[in-house]
Design brief:
Distance between the termini: 41 Å
Strand content: under 5%
Helix content: over 70%
Order of helices and strands: HHHHHHHH
Number of helices: 8
Mean pLDDT: 83
Length: 215
């Protein structure tokens, strides 16, 4: 939280000092999130390497798994459609995500695509399902550990959608599915692949929606 506070203050100061950035301040959302990932990984690295003297990636669940990669990816794509249908049933409001700015030029679309389908799933699954979920499932049991991790996952994504409760629930449910795959496979890799497939569908659909809007 301290790192996030520093990021917010830094970006706010930058916008204040350079007023021209006000029109494109949403473009700062992606680098800000990347910096936050770096801060979180730094903290995790210190915990495992310095405090416990354990290998970082193996401790975070980056181990081999018998869970077929293609099943994880296809499962993520199927999950995105199910979440979309549930979102329609919940009448989720139309909100403007700060990341919509990245869908207005081919270069930004490519950058955002890599972030959404690769960087984001790797970073988020490593932190949530690799770092947070295992001790919770060990101490509280699998259902509680998966549910708590998914709840935190959904709440932290809330600001991207103006805090709309429907999106918090939908993202939390997706996180619970990622968590279940992580628990059953014993590895974070299938969860990453599932998350990537999930994001890929929404990424492609977002491009399609934006193309229709700007016709």
């Amino acid at each position: 939280m301290g790192g996030l506070f520093v990021i917010i203050i830094t970006l706010a100061s930058l916008i204040h000092l350079v007023p021209e950035l006000t029109k494109s301040q949403q473009l700062l959302a992606l680098p800000a999130q990347f910096v936050l990932y770096v801060i979180l990984y730094g903290a995790v690295w210190v915990i495992f390497r310095v405090k416990y003297e354990q290998p970082v990636w193996r401790s975070l669940g980056w181990t081999s798994s018998r869970f077929p990669p293609w099943q994880a990816i296809v499962g993520g794509c199927a999950l995105s459609f199910l979440i979309g249908l549930l979102g329609a049933a919940l009448r989720t409001p139309q909100v403007h995500s700060p990341f919509e700015q990245f869908l207005r030029s081919p270069a930004w679309i490519a950058i955002f695509g890599v972030f959404a389908v690769l960087v984001g799933p790797v970073a988020e699954e490593t932190i949530f399902r690799g770092f947070l979920q295992p001790p919770l499932t060990r101490d509280l049991g699998a259902p509680a550990g998966i549910a708590i991790t998914a709840g935190v996952f959904g709440l932290l994504h809330g600001p991207e959608y103006s805090g709309a409760w429907q999106y918090v629930i939908l993202v939390g449910l997706a996180g619970a599915c990622f968590g279940w795959v992580r628990y059953r496979s014993g590895s974070v890799i299938p969860a990453v692949l599932m998350h990537g497939g999930f994001n890929a569908v929404f990424f492609v659909s977002s491009i399609f929606v934006q193309s229709q809007i700007h016709k």
